[in-house]
Design brief:
406 residues, 4-stranded antiparallel beta sheet, two-stranded antiparallel ribbon, 6 strands, 62% helix
Length: 406
């Protein structure tokens, strides 16, 4: 019952936020209202109404109602950060700009510019949504939701390289030293997909039979019934094929479930002692954890992962190019064969440099979860409010002293 009441409270605050942004913001000419965080935070009505303004903003952003840069806005540091109202359902329509009478008669009527759909905004965003709102962080999901599956599909539609990149960013802390296994799995998965493609499977996808074979080759031995149940569980979009991202959910199931329960600070209800073999009906938990970006993910780590994947792709393209030249023979073919041998022998200086950068960045960050994050956010927001109140009192005292002639 408490969870229902909390969800209802968040719904009410999101609707009130729409009104406040409309009241305090300006029309950006594209059918949207825009307000800076500073004026919104300082507004007396806003200060009195919201229990946690940042929590409401994050809930609204997650629903595609508003958008702003970053994951957390802080008073002072982000006063000029613009918050855009994407979905103004329930708010009054933007006022039409007044035009001179003569111009109004001559100029043809213009069609109003529609605000971009929330789904389009989400699809264009290069990064995942940040940490969940307070209510969501404390309430674990009980099954798949359309919103969750839609977000997953946005990533699942990307190339296998991009899926690999996303997975690394989400679980770079949970994977620990096993993160290096993910790019290697990508190469093996794509080779298996190419070798076993029956002409019916889309590129970079494998059907359930081929996926079972791949599991066996990776030492993930299961009974036929276990394989069928687990593959159905991670076939999130139920299309009969397994993408690289879906395979990763199965391959690293134990680690992901451990992160999930650590995240929500609840006891694990599955037996993870046998490498997760036989565990099914947990797909929604795996997706939920995948879509939760780790707190402590600093730009240096993201940049290191991006560079790692970029260099990896460059190396693969170079190997492919040299192999094609070597196959043609001749003097150029011999030269290409020699260069190929050097690359294949492990001359990965640049790749090793990126790995060292990533390892150094990981050591500087920590993946805090659950109440630790929430308490930190609440403490920061409380401190900001207290500071704002003190500044307001000081201004009032100064005005009073001025009027009293002190």
């Amino acid at each position: 019952m408490a969870a229902v009441e909390q969800a209802s409270k968040i719904d009410e605050e999101v609707q009130e936020l729409i009104k406040d942004i409309t009241r305090l913001g300006r029309n950006n000419g594209a059918g949207q209202y825009v307000v800076e965080y500073g004026p919104l935070f300082d507004d007396e009505k806003v200060e009195q109404y919201y229990e946690a303004l940042m929590g409401t903003l994050k809930a609204a952003k997650k629903r595609g109602i508003v958008d702003f840069k970053g994951q957390i806005l802080l008073k002072g540091a982000h006063d000029k950060t613009e918050i855009t109202l994407l979905d103004s359902s329930g708010a009054p329509p933007p006022p039409a700009p007044a035009a001179p009478a003569a111009a109004a008669e001559e100029a043809p009527a213009k069609k109003p510019v529609a605000a971009p759909k929330p789904s389009a905004v989400a699809a264009a965003a290069p990064k995942k949504s940040g940490f969940k709102t307070a209510a969501e962080a404390m309430e674990p999901p009980t099954g798949h939701t359309p919103e969750q599956d839609a977000k997953f599909e946005q990533i699942n539609e990307k190339s296998a390289d991009e899926q690999c990149q996303f997975f690394l960013k989400s679980f770079i802390f949970g994977l620990k030293e096993d993160w290096k296994e993910v790019p290697k799995l990508l190469e093996e998965f794509l080779k298996h997909a190419k070798d076993t493609n029956d002409g019916k499977s889309p590129p970079e996808l494998i059907n359930h039979i081929s996926a079972s074979d791949f599991l066996q080759k990776k030492g993930k031995t299961r009974t036929a019934a276990e394989r069928k149940a687990e593959l159905n569980d991670v076939d999130i979009n139920n299309d009969g094929f397994i993408s690289f991202l879906e395979y990763l959910l199965l391959h690293f199931k134990v680690m992901i479930l451990q992160e999930f329960y650590k995240h929500y600070e609840i006891d694990c209800v599955e037996d993870l002692t046998n490498d997760g073999i036989g565990i099914a009906n947990v797909g929604y938990k795996l997706v939920d954890e995948l879509l939760t970006m780790p707190a402590g993910m600093n730009p240096q780590i993201e940049a290191a992962i991006d560079e790692f994947m970029e260099k990896k792709k460059e190396r693969e393209n170079k190997i492919k190019e040299l192999q094609e030249k070597a196959d043609k023979g001749g003097v150029k073919g011999m030269a290409a064969k020699q260069e190929l041998a050097i690359i294949m022998s492990g001359d990965d200086t640049e790749m090793n440099r990126v790995e060292l950068t990533l390892q150094a960045a990981k050591r500087k960050a920590a993946k805090n979860r659950g109440s630790v994050i929430l308490a930190d956010m609440a403490a920061k927001e409380a401190a900001e409010k207290a500071k704002a109140k003190e500044e307001a009192r000081a201004r009032m005292a100064a005005k009073k002293a001025m009027f009293e002639g002190k």
